[in-house]
Amino acid sequence: MKKIYILLLSALIGLTALSAPCFASYLDETGERYHLVTSNYKDGFMTLDTEGDRIKISGVFKNDFPKSIAIMGADPSDERLRTESDGSFSGEIVCTPFDNAYYYLKITFDSRLIYTYTLKYNDGWSIPDNGIAQANKLKFINIDAAPPLAAAYYLSAEGDRAEAEETLSELERIVDEVCGDETDDYVKAMKLIDWIGTNICYDHDAADTSVTMDTVAVHNVLERRRTTCAGFANTFSALLEIAGIRSVNLKGAAVAGEITYDMLPTGTENHEFSAFWYRAEKRWVYCDACWTSNSSYRDGEYKYEISGGTKYFDVTEEAFALNHRIDKIEERFYTQALAALDGEPAQTETEKEETSEKEKETSENAQVTVREETSETRSDVSAPIKEEKSGGDFAFYIIIGLLGAAVIGTGIVLAVNKRK
């Protein structure tokens, strides 16, 4: 019996050792990471590694080239960057700042785009981890399905049928023009977010005074070519639905305005962004159409700048969690808006079947809610990106189950020994 006890105890110790990496992925007591990947897009991503006072970057950008790297607020002692003709690049920077604090790593590209990532210096560089990624992921268990009539008011601020119909026609025209004969949903979504980044300006005048449905209704966004974050998200979601791609609006907080990195886990709601379901890979793709636009509308004047392209397209879950917190997820059915305004049944039998399939993919308890848009702000500074191994959640729960079984088995053996 002692042999059985020893075997069980050994198994328990062994399983504990095996599970350590899984716990470290989400419960790292230091709150630090040393290796990050910025995007799932294979033709536009960076990896970031830190070791002591040294920061290394590498990756691929086939349509642009990084030309410089720097630490904002600190002077590097050494800086190197090398690019190749195939779009790949590598570089490193050595920097020892005077203070232990947060700093921005700044990468400037030939196109004038600037990517920034928050770093932490504490006697050596690391990328801070706020642990929001898992919380964001769990939000997709409950996706609120807004009634089709709500979508009508997101198309037209007054719920005007003629205006809503005109808006849907314009959305169809844009999708046809931008996507053409493209059949891959991922590529279509990429083209559509780039169109928004190129054509729509961020409305600072509205953000500084008040944001209403008039500001974020898709009809006005397309007509005025300006809006705030909710309007960007509404327009992107509507374009995706017209293109046959399921999408959702994500409401929450972002590192913007008064919300700093430290405040993100508990800061007030101040941002709206998007995700779409990529059927080919059965996963949600995080996007921020608002932050893709570098153009602005301020004091009654438009200022157009280069689109951010894929800068905020298919950002890794870990990356998004470091500057985006999800509080609520809402799906809106723009293509059913006219029928809702006419008082017709919300869905045909075919549409009900399609909706049922969508719900099975992500949610068993969809609720119907509509909320007015609130004031919102925006920041052009991105936060750090982190990398975790796919399948980690699954392995984590299996190991927890095995640990439990081992503990129970050990208890049984001890109880039998005691009786003897």
Topology:
Layout: H1 2-26, E1 32-33, E2 35-37, E3 44-51, E4 54-61, E5 66-72, E6 78-83, E7 88-94, E8 102-109, E9 114-121, E10 125-128, H2 132-138, E11 144-145, H3 148-155, H4 161-179, H5 185-199, E12 201-203, H6 204-209, H7 213-216, H8 218-224, E13 226-227, H9 229-242, E14 247-254, E15 271-278, E16 283-287, H10 289-292, E17 296-298, E18 301-303, E19 313-315, H11 317-321, E20 324-331, H12 337-341, H13 349-362, H14 392-419
Parallel strand pairs: 11-20, 12-13, 12-17
Antiparallel strand pairs: 1-10, 2-3, 3-4, 4-7, 5-8, 6-7, 8-9, 9-10, 14-15, 14-20, 15-16, 16-19, 17-18
What's this model, at a glance?
The protein is α+β, with helices and mostly antiparallel strands and 420 residues long.
Labels describing this entry:
alpha+beta; Immunoglobulin-like; C8orf32 fold; 5-stranded antiparallel beta sheet; globular; disordered N terminus
Descriptive overview:
The protein is an alpha+beta fold. It has 14 helices and 20 strands. It has helices spanning 2-26, 132-138, 148-155, 161-179, 185-199, 204-209, 213-216, 218-224, 229-242, 289-292, 317-321, 337-341, 349-362, 392-419; strands at residues 32-33, 35-37, 44-51, 54-61, 66-72, 78-83, 88-94, 102-109, 114-121, 125-128, 144-145, 201-203, 226-227, 247-254, 271-278, 283-287, 296-298, 301-303, 313-315, 324-331. A hairpin with a 2-residue loop joins strand 17 (296-298) and strand 18 (301-303). Helix 1 packs antiparallel against helix 14 and helix 5 (185-199) packs antiparallel against helix 9.
